[in-house]
Amino acid sequence: MAVESWKKLLVTAALAVVVTLVVYNLYGRTTGNNRLHKRTVEVSMKTIYLVPIGDIDKVIIEDIAPEVAEIYSTDYKIVDKPLDIPKDAYNKDREQYLARSFLETLKELPESKKGLVIGIADVDIYTPELNFLFGLAEMGSSVCVMSVTRLRPEFYGNNKPDHKVLIKRSVTESVHELGHVVGLAHCPNPACVMFFSNSRADTDYKGKHFCDECAQLVRKGMSE
Ligand SMILES: [Zn+2]
Ligand SMILES: [Zn+2]
Question: Where do the H-state alpha helices sit in the chain?
Answer without folding.
Answer: 2-43, 58-71, 99-107, 163-181, 200-206, 212-223
